Amino acid sequence: MEARLPLFSGEVGPKVLRHINSASKTVTDSALPAATQELVKLRASQINGCGFCTDMHSKEAAAAGETSLRLNLVAAWRDATVFTEAERAALEVTEQGTRIADGAGGVTDEAWREAAKHYDEEQLTALVSLIALINAYNRVNVIVRNPAGDYQPGQFG
């Protein structure tokens, strides 16, 4: 299986991805916990059916010390006891923020209030930015059909 388009060649692809990566680095360096960031990226990627990002973020999370139990339960986080209340709040905002097109009306006030109990304004800004960025990555990869399975942790630095 090959991608429809070589995103890393030409003029436009590398420039656009460099800007998205720069924004992503800002979030990575924020006070939003790294484990939460990986869970958010993994869950949004699962929802969007992005095999490439699901592969990448499950492997990156495992390489960073995340347990296989938690990684395997991200898709069923509501029924799992292995996530903190803060992580559950972040996953709820992630799902609602990712499923905007499903007619759900975006993130509810209740979900936002719960997240605000666990994260300060800078962390919430990082969370919102992360959700937007991973959804952008997901869409790019799904549209060009980037294949999954070959990603190696740290591959993109």
Automatic annotation (TrEMBL):
Leader sequence segment: none
Ranges where the Carboxymuconolactone decarboxylase-like domain occurs: 14-95
Pfam families: CMD
Top-level taxon in the UniProt lineage: Bacteria
Species this chain originates from: Streptomyces cavernicola
Protein name: Carboxymuconolactone decarboxylase family protein
